[in-house]
Known about the structure:
Layout: E1 4-9, H1 13-24, E2 29-35, H2 39-49, E3 52-54, H3 57-61, E4 68-71, H4 78-87, E5 91-94, H5 102-115, E6 119-121, H6 129-139, E7 146-154, H7 173-176, H8 180-196, E8 200-208, E9 219-226, E10 231-237, E11 245-252, E12 255-259, E13 267-271, E14 276-279, H9 295-305, H10 313-332, E15 336-337
Helix pairs in contact: 4-5, 5-10, 6-8, 8-10
Domain Gfo/Idh/MocA-like oxidoreductase N-terminal: 4-121
GO molecular function: nucleotide binding
Pfam families: GFO_IDH_MocA, GFO_IDH_MocA_C3
Amino acid sequence: xxxxxxxxxxxxxxxxxxxxxxxxxxxxxxxxxxxxxxxxxxxxxxxxxxxxxxxxxxxxxxxxxxxxxxxxxxxxxxxxxxxxxxxxxxxxxxxxxxxxxxxxxxxxxxxxxxxxxxxxxxxxxxxxxxxxxxxxxxxxxxxxxxxxxxxxxxxxxxxxxxxxxxxxxxxxxxxxxxxxxxxxxxxxxxxxxxxxxxxxxxxxxxxxxxxxxxxxxxxxxxxxxxxxxxxxxxxxxxxxxxxxxxxxxxxxxxxxxxxxxxxxxxxxxxxxxxxxxxxxxxxxxxxxxxxxxxxxxxxxxxxxxxxxxxxxxxxxxxxxxxxxxxxxxxxxxxxxxx
Length: 338
């Protein structure tokens, strides 16, 4: 395979824990540029691993040798940088949520179409082994008709995760747009789209700022309905103390599927008679256990193989749309059609 040159835009925690080390695992990828508004962060990685450092992403995008970029910036910059990168002829892997408005997300999709370059959204939960097996199980009809589900992603908050701690942009509504819903909830929305192979048609939401300082949400629960009539809940929170919860349960006419609910077996199927199938598969990523997500590998494989990325702009838009409608639901205190 031909070598691909990559630039990292935003050298914060998601870049240093996920993007940079996962690119470094690939033999046919070189990270040749690092950019951060705090240039010392970019310079540290450039000096350690080689490459150039920038404090302005526009200068990085002028480098014609760069084939692709990872956008790991605060949410409000995703669309602006992605559109400029695509227009400059770069493939783009953008962190979630892909944008802060539906209009910006649509502009990103249009830029990808016009440029002929790939736009992938970093929804990494699709790529865990338990979720991939669950998708196969569900598509084969092992659970029969799906009746309901519960999916949850919660921990104590990004203070210990973010490079800026309690002063992180995560808590600034202007830069983040949303809090736990954008950090965690959008992952679970995308996951349910993937597992159920359909999108949601209605949402009712309760959204709170229960503990964190600032004006972004830290505790949200959605009730969701699919076109086929499955109803369930999604919880996203930065207020879960003592233990992270990153689990999904799906209820069907032929049994129950439990994903990441057990510390040992992260795929459990229980049929109508109570018979159990349990498998130990690859662990899901947590703030404490930084296993490889597979996201970067899939992004590079798509570029090199000339194939569509597995999570494209339309997928990112579908998840963002649920979040936007949930905000409307909470404000208007009623169920909203999507």
